[in-house]
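Okay, can you check this protein?
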Amino acid sequence: MAVSSESLNASNAASRGAFIVMEGMDRAGKTTQVGKLRHTLEEQGHKVKTIRFPDRTTPMGTMIDGYLQSKTEMADHAIHLLFSANRWEKAAWIKEQISQGYMILCDRYYYSGMVYSAAKKNPALSLEWARTPDVGLPRPDRVIFLDLNAAEAEKRGGYGEEKYEKREMQENARELFLGLAGRGEESSDMVVIDAGHSVEQVASAIWDEVMKVVKAVETVPRRELSVVGAWTQVP
């Protein structure tokens, strides 16, 4: 992947790292792109750590894993709160690593949490309700949403292995993800990238966005990592 001539340099390291989240539809290539982005950032001299949600290594994560593999069943509200609690388990760790100058690359975060729960179309579980338990979590500096339609996702390897990898669910989730472009702080935090292009083309587009964020963090070294705020107005 080509890197800009204005490449990032470790000598300009900020007092804190940047918090980058990779979101997207299932099989959109999130994990692949997180790996490529980490490699490029490390080549530029940055300290990088990655995290993935749900974190299936914790006791809560083990319960979530069983649910996603359809080994267990839970009420919609209960599993949603478990997903949120799984993120809260790592909130202090994220803030600590950021404060130590690490770039944190996160594969899925609270965006997926609220969107996939609301995509179930449970009338008692709205997008607003689903977002509320995550208010106060560390707020990302940038969220990259890898957009891929359900028909294209179905052509990719491994599709359909987990609970949410169904056409209707994916279409509902995609609509909600794209709708976040006009909602609250998500409208400024999230950028949409077409994941239907080649791996290298997608990686290049991601790099362009991430470079802007890292430079912004470096130029204001004392700027604290924000927290997720409540939606003050509901359309």
Summary: Residues 3-14 have pLDDT under 50 and may be disordered. The two ends are 41 Å apart (CA to CA). Residues 15-53+91-219 form a domain with the Rossmann fold fold (CATH 3.40.50.300).
